[in-house]
Specification:
It is built from 5 helices and no strands. With 83 residues, the protein is mainly α. It has one domain: DNA polymerase, domain 1, CATH 1.10.150. This is TfoX C-terminal domain-containing protein. InterPro entries: TfoX_C.
Length: 83
């Protein structure tokens, strides 16, 4: 993927793709991606803007929540189910 394709895709869609491919969720990684795509230093936002980013991050993680108890158990053991 090129930088231009990443910009066109947007931070949320790109981060969701990362999670879907097995990447572990981490707020700072998401935060840095959002800031970088805006041409800002990774640690530039504060206060309400940062709280809003956290809500977006949590919503992205929720999209990948386990569908059932067996998937939850496998996730806890570190087994990644094919998607």
């Amino acid at each position: 993927m090129t930088a231009e394709e990443l910009r066109d895709m947007g931070a949320d869609a790109a981060y969701l793709r990362l999670l879907q491919s097995g990447g572990a969720p981490h707020f700072i990684g998401y935060y840095a991606l959002v800031m970088g795509l805006q041409g800002r230093p990774w640690n530039d936002c504060k206060g309400e803007e940062k709280k809003a980013l956290r809500l977006r991050f949590d919503a992205l993680k929720a999209e990948l929540a386990p569908a059932n108890a067996i998937e939850s158990a496998l996730n806890e053991l570190g087994v990644i189910l094919p998607r």
